[in-house]
Amino acid sequence: MSIQTVATRPFAGQRPGTSGLRKKVTEFQQPGYLENFVEAIFLTIGGGAGRTLVVGGDGRYFNREAVQTILRMAAAHGVERVLVGRGGILSTPAASCVIRKHAAHGGILLSASHNPGGPDGDFGIKYNIENGGPAPEKITEAIFAHTQALTSYRISDAPALDIDVLGTSRIENTVVEVIDPVADYAALMGRLFDFEAIRALFAGGFTMRFDAMHAVSGPYAKTIIEDMLGAPAGTVINGEPREDFGGHHPDPNPVNAAELIALMNGPGAPDFGAASDGDGDRNMIVGRGIAVTPSDSLAIIAANATLAPGYAGGIKGIARSMPTSTAADRVAEALGISCFETPTGWKYFGNLMDANLVTLCGEESYGTGSHHIREKDGLWAVLFWLNLLAATRKPVAQIVGEHWARFGRNYYSRHDYEAVDAAAADGMMTALRERLPELAGRTLDGHQVAEADDFEYNDPVDGSVSTRQGIRIIMRDGSRIVFRLSGTGTEGATIRLYLERYEPDPARHDLDTQEALASLAAVADDISGLRERTGRDRPTVVT
Ligand code: G1P
Ligand code: ZN
């Protein structure tokens, strides 16, 4: 075994996006591509001496090779100890949990989240810091800067390590510990939620389907929901992680989890349905005949937080990403706590949680979580709902209906235009940005524009400023139209159009969501020229 210095040259485009570096597998397979990015991480954090690092991923195609490469590079950079999930597996929330529990310096997480996997699919890598959360922009930018100036990387020539057996071994002077990927996470969940009450719920005949979508949360959900909480075998479906997610899109929304939605709308539906994504940080909550929007789920969790033992003392504050509906803001107001509006991406929540300003965070993109870790957490949200259902013994639809009756309903939908021509998308955003000053004060199809801006975030903790985080058109009645370009797509550009309408009157809480938002959708198209500019006459995905 010896440490090699390998000559390399920079690859263009290694700037991390909303959540790390995501590219096609084929791009990652180029010699030196992964190595360069990992080298840049080590240069940015100042090497590995005396440090513990966590490594794991969602098990998608290329995960195993990438883990071996990272282990050999960690050894070359003098890392003292690496904790790696058995089989190279760690869900994103579990990785965050392990970093915090073992006081690691950080972690390298391998995932492209909900993007499809397999040889023709996507792969991704990101660095998380010692609080367990995604590296903030100043670190991701430093990593990027290093990738653009590299001339060599360092790697041990040690043979591949057996990562399928628990235990400790060595590469060079680095201790590599293969850990159970589920144990630490499951123990944490047991401390946050009333497992006894949930066990009693299942014992009483309560039925559930958890769709793991052939992704990483299968083993976590089986251990916790079936083994620890006593749900019958078969409650967790598609529970075997596969390298290509069974050919499906591991994104828990009503479009990609259509089978689960059909089951929940059909005769003999179980009491509760849920799904999570490729790396286990997203969640979808479904009741009989009702899919709960992630924005509503955040608000409902906040309003009922004290029912879960881990939150019995109340919550400090809530943070939501800007495009997420304002349903949580109303709960925060009622509770007399602050509600922060941040740019899209979980990394912006870390400072707020570290400073103890917020307890709960959420995004409209099926992401919900709390300060128990520093990532969003799919199974956590599902367990929160189970705790809520066990404590109230009410059906999901009733819980949601009662929440709307109390706080009003925020009709909400996101329209995605995927893989559109990048220049057309940029052109649309630029033109819209230029129109913002003249939009304020105008009336558009009966909606009076109160404010129109390009969202800028001033981090109240470290004072950093993030500009151009999405175009907001806010109406007098609280309705909103938001436009932004995706930072996670790997093909052309993806335009996200977010629509929200607030309806206080319970007599009007039964409208069809798209009908309720039709007028706002028309206004959005009118002011942006979206359809004309992109040549698309309808969104690719509506959630
Ligand atoms: C998307 C979601 C965003 C989420 C991110 C990572 O990013 O919109 O809320 O944090 O995935 O899961 P986008 O593609 O919109 O940049
Ligand atoms: Zn994810």
List the helices and strands and how they pair.
Elements lengths: L2 E5 L13 E4 H4 L4 H13 L6 E6 L5 H14 L4 E9 L2 H10 L4 E5 L11 E7 L8 H11 L4 E5 L10 E5 L2 E6 L3 H10 L2 H9 L4 E4 L5 H12 L7 E2 L20 H8 L6 E5 L6 E5 L2 E3 L1 H10 L13 E5 L5 H9 L2 E5 L6 H6 L5 E4 L3 E4 L7 H15 L3 H12 L1 E12 L1 H18 L3 E2 L2 E8 L2 E2 L6 E2 L4 E5 L4 E6 L7 E11 L9 H16 L1 H5 L6 E2 L1
Helix pairs in contact: 2-3, 2-5, 7-13, 10-11
The structure holds 1-O-phosphono-alpha-D-glucopyranose and zinc ion.
Explain what this protein looks like in three dimensions.
The protein has 543 residues and is of the alpha/beta class. It is built from 17 helices and 27 strands. The termini are far apart. The protein binds 1-O-phosphono-alpha-D-glucopyranose and zinc ion.
Please state the structural category. Answer: alpha/beta
> Which blocks of ≥5 consecutive residues have pLDDT under 50?
none
| Relative strand content | 25-35%
- Bound chemical compounds: 1-O-phosphono-alpha-D-glucopyranose, zinc ion
Helical region count? 17
Radius of gyration: 23 Å
* Number of domain units: 3
CATH superfamily of the largest domain: Alpha-D-Glucose-1,6-Bisphosphate, subunit A, domain 3
General shape: globular
Q: Which CATH first-tier class of the largest domain would you pick?
A: Alpha Beta
* Biggest beta sheet attributes: 7 strands, mixed
| CATH fold name of the largest domain | Alpha-D-Glucose-1,6-Bisphosphate, Chain A, domain 3
Q: Give the CATH architecture of the largest domain.
A: 3-Layer(aba) Sandwich
Q: Helicity level, as a percent range?
A: 25-40%
Question: Can you give the mean pLDDT?
Answer: 96
Terminal residue distance: 52 Å
Overall strand count = 27
Strand order of the largest sheet: 2-6-5-3-4-9-8
